[in-house]
Amino acid sequence: MPSLPNILITGTPGVGKSTLASSVSEALGFSHLNVSDLVKGNNLYSSYDDEMQTHILDDDLLIDHLEPLVAPGGAVVDFHSPEVFPLRYFSLVLVLRTTTATLFDRLQARQYPTKKIEENIQCEIMNVVYEEAVES
């Protein structure tokens, strides 16, 4: 068991995970691990989905890469899929939410494809990330 806790900040893309994780990690003196950046920067994906303009995560590669980074504790991790991680990694899991209007504006500003925006809005409406966090 790590001497310091690890915190997972999760939620639909565009709810403010990275912004909050950055603030929390700075305030606590913890490291901030943005999983999306780790996946892209370390080739932790199996393929690329052109239609959704996203990498397809390789869960095993991610866990192998992340394990030594979270083992000592003191990490704030942000990612939109909480079910990927072993329960032992985190002492606290925060699920962020926002209004669909705010989410739409943020995803549109990121120039997400229409289908990707619609899918993420539906996920937010249906509490998909919250349900995944509770179930995992």
Please characterize this protein's 3D structure.
This protein is an alpha/beta fold and 136 residues long. Helix content is 45%, strand content 18%. The protein has six helices and six strands. A four-stranded parallel beta sheet has the order 2-5-1-6, with helices on both faces. Strands 3-4 form a two-stranded antiparallel ribbon. β3 and β4 form a beta hairpin.
How does the SSE layout of this entry go?
Elements: E1 7-10, H1 17-28, E2 31-34, H2 35-41, E3 45-49, E4 54-57, H3 59-70, E5 75-78, E6 92-95, H4 100-109, H5 114-125, H6 128-135
What are its keywords?
4-stranded parallel sheet, 6 strands, 45% helix, two-stranded antiparallel sheet
How would you summarize this macromolecular structure in one to three sentences?
The protein has 136 residues and is of the alpha/beta class. The chain is built from 6 helices and 6 strands, in the order E-H-E-H-E-E-H-E-E-H-H-H. It has helices spanning 17-28, 35-41, 59-70, 100-109, 114-125, 128-135; strands spanning 7-10, 31-34, 45-49, 54-57, 75-78, 92-95.
Number of helices: 6
Low-confidence runs of at least 5 consecutive residues: none
Amino-to-carboxy terminus distance: 19 Å
- Largest sheet features: 4 strands, parallel
Percent helix: 40-55%
Q: Order of strands across the biggest sheet?
A: 2-5-1-6
Task: Give the number of DSSP strands.
Answer: 6
Averaged pLDDT: 96
Strand-residue proportion? 15-25%
N-to-C series of helices and strands? EHEHEEHEEHHH
Structural class: alpha/beta
Which overall shape is indicated by the principal axes computed on the Cα atoms? globular
